[in-house]
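Example record

One chain of 182 residues, shown exactly as stored in the release files.
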Amino acid sequence: MQKRRLAGDPNPRQLLERILRVDHAGEYGAKRIYDGQLAVLGRRGTSSAPAIRQMAAQEQKHLDAFDRLLPERRVRPTLLSPLWHVGGFALGAATALMGEKAAMACTEAVEDVIDRHYAAQIETLGEAEPELRGLIEEFRQEEIEHRDTARAQGAEEAPAYPLLSRGIRAITRGAIWLSERV
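Predicted C-alpha cells for this chain:
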C-alpha cells in the first residue's frame, strides 16, 4: 500500500476495505459454488464428492476468518451478497449437472483467477498489514491446492472445456470487480 497514489486512487483505508470486502464475497461465493456442486454430486456418491467436501470445508474456514475481520475492521460486506448466494449455488449446481469433470472445470477456473487475485493483493499490501497479508498467503496456497485437485480430477476433460473455462473465469473476474466496489 506504499506505492504513489494518483488522483482517483483509493486511499489506504479504502484499499483495505476493498480487499476485505472482495475477499469475504469471494469466499462466500466459493462456499456457495461447492454447496451447489454437493447438492448434485453429493447425493450421487460420486468419486469427486469427498474432494469437494474437503475444499468446501476449507472455504468455510476462509469465510469464517473474513466474517470475523469485517466487523473488527469496521468494513461492510458487499451489497451483492444475495446475488452471490444464488449465483454461486447456481454455478456449482449447473456445472455439476454437466458432470464431475465440468464441476472440476468450474473449480479449476475459479481457483486460478483467485490465485492471481490473491497474489496481486499480497503485492499491493507489501509490508503493510502483515497479519492480513499472512492470512491471504495461507488462503492462496489452499486455493492453489483446490485448483490442482480439480486438474488432477480431470477438469480439462470436461465437455467444451475451453469455452466453459473462459466463461467461468470471466464471471469470476467480473464478480471480483463488482464486489470491490459495491
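Notes: The radius of gyration is 16 Å.
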